[in-house]
Design goal:
- With 139 residues, the protein is mostly helical.
- 82% of the residues lie in helices and 0% in strands.
- The chain has one domain.
- Helix 3 packs antiparallel against helix 4.
- The protein starts with 9 loop residues before the first helix and ends with a helix.
- The model has no long low-confidence stretch (mean pLDDT 89).
């Protein structure tokens, strides 16, 4: 069986998420050079920044719950969830109110960091599983 406690630590996963999301955000920013008045591209950039901030806020919450009692940890995470949800709703509201941002671009940009996190983490699990199978076959 795959040893799950050897999965990446939170700080390593966050650093990789920020790095890869930064690369994707840079590519989105290059699109702004081609067409600086594009509301969709501005929405992608703003949404990507909000997605990274959301990831950092989740990380900061998760690193503090290890030493808390269960009930307090649940309340702590719920409070963070509602704060992050409020932030996302505020940015989406601004995208609706201002013509300079496209709501679809912002919404897609918000999901860039979580998608990168899930893809990167699943690739690392597959690599760990492949290494496990190689070691299993050697024995």
């Amino acid at each position: 069986m795959l040893d799950l406690h050897k999965a990446r630590s939170l700080n390593v996963q966050l650093a990789r998420t920020i790095k890869f999301t930064g690369i994707v955000g840079f590519v989105f920013s290059l699109g702004l050079i081609l067409e600086p008045s594009s509301p969709f591209r501005w929405g992608l950039v703003i949404g990507t920044v909000v997605g990274v901030v959301n990831s950092v806020l989740i990380y900061n919450r998760m690193k503090h719950i290890a030493d808390m009692p269960f009930e307090k940890a649940v309340a702590f995470m719920r409070m963070g969830f509602f704060m992050r949800l409020l932030m996302i709703m505020a940015v989406l509201f601004l995208a609706i109110r201002f013509d300079a941002l496209d709501i679809y671009g912002v919404a897609f940009g918000i999901f860039v960091a979580p998608m990168i996190t899930m893809i990167d983490f699943n690739i690392s699990l597959l690599n760990d599983y492949k290494a496990y199978l190689v070691l299993k076959n050697k024995n």
